[in-house]
Specification:
2 domains, 6-stranded mixed sheet, globular, binds adenosine-5'-diphosphate, binds magnesium ion
């Protein structure tokens, strides 16, 4: 579904990604693991078109996308839940959801899609008229996920969706991500909660200093001495 080949990415003179290769197959959950500053967010920005690689390529469903602007990439079926959610604070929850439906193929279905989002997160229906800035941290994150779903994505990118949430909510976010995969949405997931992530994902890539240093099935990575020591605190 998604193929990243030998991507190098820079912020000015600082190189953040080095020869990164990554592959996502349909209906997989792929985890991206790495400590702060490893380049995880940068890689999601490359996929969603917010940053263009200096070399290498990104292909989605057979089409090269690394030269496209973000809105065209959303149109093709990739949706991004950014770090911290980043909803529109002075719009209501419902207006935020409607904003997510701007691709033409999603706009005509928006009323039905909002109902589906409300089924996943009933709390958002209760809060639909409330300004986003008055929502709790958990509701805010649900809204960010809901807004991403409004574009009817084939591939959803999540950047630390459970960051700062209470344990019960963290579990709910993980369950939601699993249920998206069960509905056929492919997921690329960045999470600090490495054990939980490797338990729900199919395969994972470990990024260190902007390079992929390990990749494989999650069951194998959970057994790896390096992963245990560096990311599981064992
Ligand atoms: N907008 C930016 N300008 C300059 N450097 C940046 C910017 N964003 C990230 N970086 C640098 O790129 C590297 C990777 O950052 P990032 O992708 O945010 O890592 P992660 O998400 O894994 O914590 C870090 O060294 C970071 O300081
Ligand atoms: Mg990050």
């Amino acid at each position: 579904m998604l193929e990243i080949r030998a991507v190098n990415a820079c912020y000015g003179k600082i190189q953040a990604l080095w020869d990164v290769c990554l592959e996502v197959r349909e209906a997989e959950i792929i985890a991206l693991v790495g400590s702060n500053g490893a380049g995880k967010t940068t890689l999601l920005h490359i996929i969603s078109g917010m940053l263009h690689p200096v070399s290498g390529s990104v292909t989605f469903l057979g089409r090269q996308i690394d030269n496209l602007p973000p809105h065209s990439i959303v149109e093709l079926g990739i949706s991004h839940v950014p770090e911290g959610g980043r909803v529109f604070p002075d719009m209501t929850a419902r207006e935020n959801l409607e904003m997510g439906a701007y691709p033409s193929r999603a706009w005509k279905h928006r009323v039905k899609t909002i109902e589906q989002v409300y089924q996943i997160f009933p709390r958002l229906k209760e809060r639909e008229k409330q300004l986003a800035r008055t929502l709790s941290g958990g509701e805010h994150q649900m809204l960010a996920i809901g807004r991403a779903l409004m574009s009817k994505p084939k591939l959803c990118l999540f950047d630390e969706p459970s960051y700062g949430l209470a344990p019960l909510l963290v579990a709910e976010i993980f369950r939601t991500i699993q249920s998206l995969r069960d509905q056929g949405i492919t997921v690329l997931l960045i999470e600090q909660n490495v054990r939980h992530t490797l338990e729900i994902a199919d395969r994972a890539y470990v990024l260190e200093n902007g390079r992929v240093c390990m990749e494989g099935d999650c069951a194998e990575l959970l057994q790896s001495d390096h992963v245990k020591k560096a990311y599981l605190g064992l």
